[in-house]
Structure to design on (365 residues):
């Protein structure tokens, strides 16, 4: 279970174990684990719940049933407390990304989130993601951070997803009432039986319980991301993870991540345009594993937006050589094609990326 880039989802039960503001009780061991990962050159993205729990005592509320607006206000104030709590445990800077489901569904926003994460990781800054609870109404919501974490694993191109909560994993029966309940170490197929077993495994503070964790595992493994449900209240689990041992329930990825991504680029994404490449760019893309720069583009067709998939053609033979995600829209690309990357900013007044199609977003056909 070696991993290079992982998303770690931390549940509210670990951020605020007694439901009264942030605590260092479990966060310290998690932060130490992340620091150890960094020392091994692994990249970590945190998806942290707990803003509502962290802000709970700071907003007047009457009944235990909280109104949505009350929760949103708690999230707004609690998010600050939670971020400050995380930052205490790291020497490297933390960064905050608040996103909603509609952001992830919009291709341009998706691309922006992806680019931001890439730059943060390149600069050794820890991205900490949460749902933007203040603006998220039901239709915009992912709703629970387990599913959000799976989407973040996809957008950040992580190979692994660790869902930390206060249960050891998925059990054959409810372990609190059945002494013969067994922890399932490995799950290769998520079917109705697994969902039924998940129903038996409850924890107390989390929004989604075990069901949303299985849903998240389903989404992630489908896309080649190995997923683990782990008990973050037990600090020994982190030693095991560092020794590449699975301390909880491991959901096996359906296919290799690189293959899954290539398949997605090749078969799932419809191309909305064509970029015609000069001989130098064709050679660089095919033989040197390079990203596509504006200087290598001779012409383009189609009316695509940034984040759309485009075909890359050899301008000589007019044959499709590759397919990839374009960082600029067609109008702007018309203005910068054939130029050096340093000209992007002066010509457009902005520069989202020095490359037009990043190597990681490209598949040779
Ligand atoms: N976004 C919510 C919070 O920060 C948590 C949602 C969840 O735990 O699934 O409180």
């Amino acid at each position: 279970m070696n991993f290079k880039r992982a998303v770690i989802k931390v549940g509210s039960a670990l951020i605020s174990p007694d439901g009264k503001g942030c605590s260092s009780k479990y966060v310290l061991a998690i932060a130490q684990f992340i620091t150890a990962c960094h020392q091994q050159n692994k990249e970590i993205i945190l998806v942290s719940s707990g803003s509502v729990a962290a802000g709970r005592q700071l907003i007047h509320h009457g009944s235990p049933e909280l109104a949505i607006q009350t929760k949103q206000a708690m999230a707004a104030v609690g998010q600050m407390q939670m971020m400050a709590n995380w930052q205490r445990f790291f020497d490297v800077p933390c960064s905050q990304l608040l996103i909603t489901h509609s952001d992830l569904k919009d291709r341009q926003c998706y691309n922006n989130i992806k680019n931001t994460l890439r730059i943060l990781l390149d600069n050794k800054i820890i991205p900490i993601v949460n749902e933007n609870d203040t603006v998220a109404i039901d239709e915009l919501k992912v709703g629970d951070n387990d599913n959000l974490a799976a989407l973040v694993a996809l957008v950040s191109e992580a190979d692994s997803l660790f869902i930390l909560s206060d249960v050891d994993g998925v059990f054959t029966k409810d372990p609190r009432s059945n002494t013969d309940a067994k922890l399932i170490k490995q799950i290769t197929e998520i079917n109705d039986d697994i969902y039924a077993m998940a129903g038996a495994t409850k924890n107390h503070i989390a929004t989604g319980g075990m069901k949303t964790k299985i849903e998240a595992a389903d989404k992630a493994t489908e896309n080649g991301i190995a997923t683990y449900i782990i008990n973050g209240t037990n600090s020994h689990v982190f030693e095991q993870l560092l020794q590449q041992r699975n301390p909880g329930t491991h959901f096996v990825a359906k296919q290799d991540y690189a293959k899954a991504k290539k398949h997605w680029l090749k078969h799932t994404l419809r191309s909305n345009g064509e970029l015609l490449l000069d001989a130098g760019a064709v050679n660089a893309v095919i033989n040197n594993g390079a990203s596509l720069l504006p200087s290598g583009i001779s012409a383009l067709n189609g009316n695509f937006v940034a984040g759309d998939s485009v075909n890359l053609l050899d301008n000589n033979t007019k044959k499709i050589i590759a397919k990839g995600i374009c960082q600029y829209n067609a109008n702007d690309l018309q203005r910068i094609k054939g130029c050096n990357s340093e000209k992007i900013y002066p010509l457009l007044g902005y520069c989202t990326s020095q490359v037009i199609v990043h190597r990681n977003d490209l598949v040779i056909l």
User: Anything to note?
Assistant: The chain is about 40% helix and 20% strand.
